[in-house]
Amino acid sequence: MLLLGHDIHNLRAGLRLNLTTGLLGFPRPMDLPAVIESLLIASEDPLSSSEIARLVRNRLAELEDGVEDGEECGETETAFAKEVGQDSEIGEETVVDAIQTLNRKYERGKRSFSIAERSKGWKIFTRPEYGGFVRQLFPGLKPRRLSPPAMEALAIVAYRQPVTKASIEHVRGVSSDSIIQKLLDRELIKISGRADLPGRPLLYGTTDFFFEHFGIKSIDELPNSEELRAVELPEPPLPGAAAEESNPNAISEGEKQLTFAEPSEEKATSREGEIDH
Prior knowledge:
Elements: H1 2-25, H2 32-42, H3 49-65, H4 75-85, H5 92-108, E1 113-118, E2 121-126, H6 131-134, H7 148-160, E3 163-164, H8 165-172, H9 177-185, E4 189-194, E5 202-206, H10 208-214, H11 225-230, H12 241-246, H13 253-261, H14 265-276
């Protein structure tokens, strides 16, 4: 009986080994979602839908023209190329549909990650509920919250960009030099150019990190973006306009120079008399 039990145990182990070997021996069929998944895993940077479609089309064209010497082409890749070649050309909509298929698969499998689109393209992200564990990999990085004044200034930049510092301060009613510098240091805003105004003041706008930080891919995804961007905000006075409004009778420096340059009539007459003598 002991020998029989030992034989049965060996038989079961052998069956498991053969089954595993058989499964590993048969290549998995290749499909477009799996191809896109491999591209996103291998890429360090986000990939746009158009870029993913271009990469897939390039590889299919290589397979159709014949691979280079020394390059191996597996049976699954060849079968995939033949299958896809019968369909219409791969475009951005096809890529988006394939990514949605992957996300549904991740959801059913309760995976800890998903594919999301940001301003620069698609990327694989871990789900928020696993953030506490992931942060253990980066002990030096701690989440920093923005103060209410910083959020207020950031909202003005986000909804009204490109915007000058004077406009930000005019809306907030207080000086914003330190707040703007903090937002620049956090890489949430950037200098996007200069305004066509006297003095050529700097213009500020949001960065790509801003979109990634708040989980959006464009300004249009901000809450009530269309309504708030359409609201006309009071513009700050131009440099020098405030002084003119406070003292409208004041004479400008240029007018003073012109006044001092013109001699009076009495002095002019006396000078003409001196010349005659």
